[in-house]
């Protein structure tokens, strides 16, 4: 049995109401602007306590570092809460970076997006003949911005390792053309992202015959 209960924001009894810091009454979390500043200008919040942000330790560490650099080091860099690589470490891992498809549609409009996807079969699964076409890869591209990759999703072995590598490329402005120009390492799971050619809108079959 897998129970995902999340985390509780313990903000109601630490005196925030005394200085006027607003919290989301439903979940106790704190709304902030893009510089982690609350409604009270001299109060900042970072990490899991933020309303609508990712509950991930590396995100909190990065946000804290950047906040300190802005407050005391003259920096202007802000934390990127969109292009965050993350993985669900279930027996078949799921990794993602950037927008989910639903959020991308909300942000950019369905007509401005192209989604490429494919099922795939890891080489090590071919010997025991295990579960062909169980793994899945998808990228979401913004057609209005040179087909820039704004979302990457992978379900398969070592998805965390795959996602971490592609996350750096996405931060550098990865496009579909650059992926197509990248030579894949055969036979790896990550190679599938260099050969994606079927769009979701086409409705074509995405099953694979082999690794």
Automatic annotation (TrEMBL):
For this protein, the parts annotated as crossing the membrane are none
Residue ranges of the FAD/NAD(P)-binding domain?
1-64
Instruction: Extract the InterPro entries matched here.
Output: FAD/NAD-bd_sf (IPR036188), FAD/NAD-binding_dom (IPR023753), FAD/NAD-linked_Rdtase_dimer_sf (IPR016156), GSHR/TRXR-like (IPR046952), Pyr_nucl-diS_OxRdtase_dimer (IPR004099)
Q: Which residues form a coiled coil?
A: none
Ordered alphabetically, the record's keywords are: Disulfide bond, FAD, Flavoprotein, NADP, Oxidoreductase, Redox-active center
SUPFAM superfamilies in UniProt: FAD/NAD(P)-binding domain, FAD/NAD-linked reductases, dimerisation (C-terminal) domain
Q: Where is the Pyridine nucleotide-disulphide oxidoreductase dimerisation domain?
A: 84-195
Q: Which GO terms describe its molecular function?
A: flavin adenine dinucleotide binding; glutathione-disulfide reductase (NADPH) activity
Checking Pfam families in the record gives: Pyr_redox_2, Pyr_redox_dim
Q: GO biological process: any one?
A: glutathione metabolic process
Which cofactor is essential here? FAD
Cellular component terms (Gene Ontology)? cytosol; mitochondrion
The entry sums up its family as follows:
Belongs to the class-I pyridine nucleotide-disulfide oxidoreductase family.
Name it.
Answer: TRXR3 reductase
